[in-house]
């Protein structure tokens, strides 16, 4: 569970909102130590940052430049990338059940040719996806080591050719906040939710917005860090660890506090559609499975049939 000390929550505008210091883990450290740190971070926060992650700067820069170039295009050009159904270009609508947001985005499947236009863009996407997928697999292998389960227990699902992983580019242009001064900065950009997949890797361009739920109605901002990837546990990994790791709810605030656009790149590492999600026996020990076995295809269709903020894993609890 997320524990945060020294947080000022119901702050008046003059008070400084402290940022949640989620663990920052240096991946260049000794493997078994890093594995332990990651498992601790997953158990206590569900979120952590990684540095010395090995994704080359030029690959990130190229993806970010292409992202900005795409969102700078006139609307008809962006719409030509395919309207989000759910993949493609979307603006202010999220998913298929009527959720709204203060952003525009491009949602891409990583196991197909990119929907988006130019080959320059495609080249940036495939270079970026290859690196972040490797990073996600490396983190999942460290998690497996820390938990004492076979090394590929989680990462194999992402390495499979038919893995259903996604790349999302979220663009939050600066918006004018017309609310009174006590409410300023409280407009939501992308509403509260947990990520359905295994693991998410987020990178943003130095403009803040991400907030993590403390589970009691309170939220804490996570500082932007262009040198790190912010990693969080998804619902599938919560199920595969029998609830030992929690897929923590988070949201993004609308970009009302700066005049720079926020661009976040999020890789969602997912299993193949037919993969059966169960907890490895080594993690169950004497405990009963909290969730029934389900396929990713089943989980995904439940996800898309419901609203963004729904606690969808509840539906898969074992009876
Ligand atoms: C939340 C995490 C990812 O951004 C996402 C989102 C998806 C979408 O935008 O198409 C969903 C949302 C996310 C969960 C509930 C459903 C599906 C919008 C929505 C209302 C791509 C994902 O996999 O699930």
UniProtKB/TrEMBL annotation:
InterPro entries: DIOX_N (IPR026992), IPNS-like_FE2OG_OXY (IPR044861), IPNS-like_sf (IPR027443), Iron_ascorbate_oxido_reductase (IPR050231), Oxoglu/Fe-dep_dioxygenase_dom (IPR005123)
Residue ranges crossing the lipid bilayer per the database entry: none
A Pfam family annotated for this UniProt entry: DIOX_N
Biased composition, class Polar residues, residue ranges: 176-186
Enzyme Commission numbers on file: 1.14.11.13
Keyword match Oxidoreductase: yes
Pathway annotation: Hormone biosynthesis; Plant hormone biosynthesis; gibberellin biosynthesis
A GO term, aspect molecular function: metal ion binding
Catalytic EC class: oxidoreductase
Keyword terms, alphabetized: Dioxygenase, Iron, Metal-binding, Oxidoreductase
Catalytic activity: gibberellin A1 + 2-oxoglutarate + O2 = gibberellin A8 + succinate + CO2
Domain Fe2OG dioxygenase stretches: 162-271
Span list, region Disordered: 172-191
PROSITE patterns in alphabetical order: FE2OG_OXY
Family, per entry: Belongs to the iron/ascorbate-dependent oxidoreductase family. GA2OX subfamily.
Function summary: Catalyzes the 2-beta-hydroxylation of several biologically active gibberellins, leading to the homeostatic regulation of their endogenous level. Catabolism of gibberellins (GAs) plays a central role in plant development. Converts GA9/GA20 to GA51/GA29 and GA4/GA1 to GA34/GA8.
Protein name as catalogued: gibberellin 2beta-dioxygenase
Organism per entry: Mikania micrantha (bitter vine)
